């Protein structure tokens, strides 16, 4: 049985998952990758700097800065926790902007990628609907804009199947005409773990790369293409059925190893083969039967609204000095 | 490791899946269960009569008549196939009504169970929005109703969490006041197989039983409770993550058995334990980690609209002689 | 030119408008009608008690208690004002309940009348989606309900054209099964003044009468029919084109009278004919041309959501002692 | 009483209404304006060519070609009539494109102006969702596009208040990157007559001008700005309250003139003053009281969906030779 392992590689858009997949094989410290993990009231913050090409290759991620907030409890719908996550997100995003050299006056174009007709892919458009835009005030009556506000514009460019145009091209056209200092692109992602779906937010200064996100972009949104820095905010909202299965087998392996010391006996050869090969096996079995669907939790309607609110509230507070997480929510629906 | 197998039994609302689970253990013919399978242009029609208590116990389903349409290609969004399925559904539903003794003049109350705010649970309310209701014409101007129409009313009673009242009680109150001859209840179901999600329609004369469907009813909609026959139409729109995993392991088992003659070697003990026990294993591993979510395909928004249209178009054609599948679609949105 | 004045009578569902129409003809005090007007931070509160049949006939309203909140600024979308109106509404509604003899433990069924597919008629269903229902907790685990909560259920029965059943009959069926102590019915109304649309809330203990509201009910929801008191909450969301025109002519009359002392000269016979006759004229002209449409402000989507939130927040605070206007909003979307 | 007549001029986006307002004063033939009216199965087709500046000034419309379809019965929701209007629209649009020199291979960018959150302003985005886009097939696999299809792309650029960017600028950016041969811009309009709302479709080769449509654009979409021809498709979906009143007074005037020969007596000075002055009067009275709202018929949700379907179906048939009105509907939702 010959397997095309490349084709079957684990599909994830999250740096923490790439890191995690090395966990078994790698030393605590991966050369070229600086990692810092902080736990704060149920929110796990992982700051990951991929500093050079060696590190990038090792971890399988583009060079850049990554911040991930993981909040397993987020799925319970607790309003208090949601506000707290928005506040932490605002703080981290603000620091991130400073870290990559964006000053408090730099203008920002927020880009909501995805398809508003496909609930798990509607995160970007939903965030765009809930952020405070101010650019038109700066354009039309610059003298009357109160201090503490930044110049913000926002668009939801739609998806290729509905527009016939790559979202990347639409954004490029808008950037050329409106000349923002930076882009913030929001996109729904695929995770390799069902547990992270709708509970994780990733911030990265690497932009959007072809093939990432749910909608399978063919062209990216990067500094190289757009001429200005592009910060990507991503939230996993879907999972492949195959990665759920693969992940479950992995969990069974550790579970039995711990409990019975005889996982090998229970799991047979499945115990010994490396993850990537096992995933290939799972996919080979599921795909011909049409079982390798992309799935999302049943409660996606509510989850996506909650997390879009968190991101929009956090962005409003981070981007405008005059707005803080306490009142930022008032600007969202 | 002690397992509560009852608690961990495979969750399915489909009779064909109950049948399928016996496939390994049972002879071709289960006593008390009459089965008839027909293949028709990509539509597999299974007619299953559970004739007595012995059969009911064996197969794990309430005594009654079950018809299932399985259309694997339905997920591809082909309008032509959708129309064909609506026509077959209309024909089968009409025969089913005759079979259980409902005449062409009997009045029907259509009940759309489920929650319109939760996309995979919104099938019932969506069907209700698209069926032709005529009862008010019969009430207000009985002389002017054209021949070929039946007296139809339709309600979407909502879910317990939004109304504070069991949908069963709401329906009972309406039945007592409006006295229909029969109930047709539409509900979104859970399947044990991701493949059947949004590709399968089940018709049964057993009504709705407590705990069935997505919304976990505490009281049923049955002839015993309502005093009139209740036909249930169900479409699986979700799956438990655990059943996806369990199903995948099952498929791997057959796959390797076929291919390498050494499945036991590859799968270890997983190969030998019975399905129910294996599912218990999977659940035990997934649940504490919050991984046993209920999931639905990413494209659920479109699927649910398509299948609601098929059911509504089919019902309109089956319930009114004056409507045929060709023009029935005109009455749906 | 013969006019059927009955047919052409001004269409309004608001007691304050009935009162207003008498303003020119009547003394300050109408016998059998006790009136009390209070101004409070931009909210005009009119309490009107129609005490006997003489008063009822005079004012053209059913005997009963009416409270109206008029908030002209409400249309500006100010969140602060919205919260204030919710608080005043909560206070008035609570007093109203005491006034008509409903104690703090009485159970309530909230009925959201109207059609969720017709934006200006969707007020009732929207309120139902945003009220806290608790009845199921009282039913399932009565010992564990915290003090300060009342037993609340809520339904949106739909409209005749979609269900084939009068909403009144559906509610009656539910009342007979669930036995609430009182009904609170929310309905969208027609106003005679565009100015009052989406800025006015009326509370009345008269229930819902046939022909009232947008959806033209044929049967009512009253104590006589339901056996329990029915409080109606109404918000005008539409206007007839003819009443806009008639109203404008009335305004022109006063305007010119004030400004030029020669309104009669400017307006001709239009100045002298009584309001009802003038409206008949206007309708006679508009109707054959299909101009007498029912209209709603362009911004209806936002208005209806805002006012539904105010009513739901106010009801939550008024019905549950444990909830106050400050935290009641948290329960609405 | 001094009136700023400019400010109070009748607000209409329809050429037929500009023409109509001259009807009393002008000869049958306005110099520089060629008019052709055709009646066809309940559809009134007016073709109006404003040929020179003199004509443009006279009629108060930009030089260009205008086609208007008026279908008073459209509001009744008859599916057959809707299909017929779509077919006539397709035919007229196809001829219009030829007339202004666009060949069958010219590529088109469809622009849906307006705000999807404001029902009467959502026409443009709704049409965009329902047109067949093909540009990506031409880009990605030009050899495999079947003959009979044109290169179509489509965007809904949003509104200034939600994006912070003029829709004109967004479109300009996209045009510069994707280089279509022509633009087709769809916009919801204001009419001076309630009767025309949702029953009229205007096609014009003048593009979109600042201040037109519901959303009050500050910059236009014209050939001068975009470098390529821009065809505007407009449907009136709203009316000012003041124009309803003014129109009604006008109708009353003709009505009484016809019926009693004494309109002057009935209407007083209102009878004699010119339309523009009368409108100024009406506005002066309504505005300070907040009564001059923009209104839309109560049934706007259904109307807007129906008319968006007609326009999208018509465009699909007109733009692709391989699509005809009979099958074009299949591509819309």
From TrEMBL, chains A, B, C, D:
UniProt modification remark: Autoproteolytically processed. The inactive tetrameric zymogen termed p46 autoprocesses to a smaller form termed p41, which is active only during spore germination.
A Pfam family it matches: Peptidase_A25
InterPro entries attached to this UniProt entry: Pept_HybD-like_dom_sf (IPR023430), Peptidase_A25 (IPR005080)
Protein's GO biological process: proteolysis; spore germination
Catalytic activity from the UniProt record: Endopeptidase action with P4 Glu or Asp, P1 preferably Glu > Asp, P1' hydrophobic and P2' Ala
Organism domain of life: Bacteria
Record family assignment: Belongs to the peptidase A25 family.
HAMAP family: Germination_prot
Name of the molecule in the record: Germination protease
Organism: Paenibacillus algicola
Primary gene name: gpr
